[in-house]
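Running this now, will post back.
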Amino acid sequence: MYKRILDNLNCAILLFDRNLILTYINTSGEILFADSAHHLVGHSADELFKFSDSALLDNLKQSLAMAEPLVDRALTVTRTTHNATINFSATPLVVDEHVNEILLELQQVDNHLRISKEEQLLTQHNTARLLVRGLAHEIKNPLGGLRGAAQLLDLELDDPELKEYTQIIIAESDRLQGLMDKMLGPNKLPNKKTLNIHEVLERVRQLVHAESSSTLTIINDYDPSIPDIYADKDQLIQAILNIARNAMQAMDGKGELLFKTRIYRHMTAGRKRYKLAVKCDIIDNGPGIDASMMSQIFYPMITGRADGTGLGLSIAQSLINQHNGLIECNSEPGNTVFSIFLPLEAGND
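Update: finished.
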C-alpha cells in the first residue's frame, strides 16, 4: 500500500542505507534518472550523483553525519538525456539514536515551470484564437456579399475585358474565403477511433516523401510497444503533417527529418494529470527557429517565411488540444524538436 502511494507522488523518493547505498526509488525517481529501479537499486550515492551538482552529495553526507534534516534549492541533476533542476530535502531516519537510513526527496523545479508555461501558452493561444475567429467571422459576411455582387455584375456584362475584372474579384474573394476558413480552424469535433500512432506517422512520412526532393532524408525511430490510442486519424495526420511541412520548408528540402515515438510518464495538460502518454517527436536538423519567435510560433498569422500564412502550427495546436494533448518546441541551430504529447488514458483532476 505504501509503495503504491509513493509511486503516485510527483516528487522523486530515494531511500539510502547508512552506507549511502540506494535501497528504494519510486516511479518519479525512475523518470528523473531515466532508468529503472532494477538497475538503480544497489548503486551508491556517489555513482548516482557522480556528474551532478556537487552540493547534492555534500548535503546528503552532511545530513547523515549530523543526523539532522537538510534542505537545499535549485540544484542540478545530470541525466542521460538532459539536466534537471531540483529542490533537495534529506531526512535521516533515526532508530535507537542511530541513523539507519536516510530519505531523499527531489522535487523537479523545471518541470513545474514547464507546466506553468504550458498553461500560460494555452491560455494565450485560446485568447488569440478567439480573437482571430471573431475577426474572420466579421470578414466573411461582407466578403460573401462582395462575391455575390461580382457574380451578378458578371452576368450583366458583355465585354470580355470587363468580365475579366469581375472574375478577378470572384477569384480573390474565393481565396480570402479559404484563408478565413483556415483562420477559423477545425470546425468539427474529433471522430475518435482506436488506432496505432505509427499508422499516422507512416502516412505523414509518405506524404512528406512525395512532396520533398530526393535530398531530404526521412528516418523513423518507433517504439513498437506503444499501445493503441483513441483519436481522430485524419486530424492527427493534419496536425503532424503541418509540423513536418514546416520542417521541410525550413530546410529547403535538404536535410534530415526524424519521426520518433516513446512512452511518456506523468504528463500534465491543462488542469489534468495523466499517468501515461504517447510522445511523438518531429526533429529536423535545419537552421532552427529564431529565439524572438519561440514564444509566438503557435499564434495565428505568425510566420518566419515571406510566403507563409502562419496558420499551420496554430491549427496543429488546436487539433492536438482537441485530443487533450499538447505540443512543445525546443530549437537551436541544427536541432529543432516539436514534441506532441497524447494521453493514453482519462485524466485525474
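The mean pLDDT is 81. More later if anyone needs it.
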